[in-house]
Request: fold
Amino acid sequence: MKVYDTVRKNELEADRDALIALMKDGRQVDFVLASPVTDADGYLTWDTEHWSHLQGSKFIRTYELKGRTLRDFTHFNIYDMADEFRPERAEKVTLS
Reply:
């Protein structure tokens, strides 16, 4: 998939595993979704996801809705990433 690197100002080709490797190297991956998503409980709605690596096999996802950063976040281990880290559903993927 096409990913725009906002630091180096270029476009690169990266798959899901390459994006996870880039996060482990200190980069943040951002997904702009085509339409807002709501969690199963109906508590949280977002249209942008920001993914970062914390340490070891721990990752964090933060959220935005209509340009406003939400206070909520979720932690994941590398095994949970298979279900939750889905760049294919993003309309636009950026690397920062």
In short: DSSP finds two helices and seven strands in the chain. The chain has a mean pLDDT of 95. The first strand starts at residue 2 and ends at 5. The CA atoms of residues 16 and 87 lie 7 Å apart.
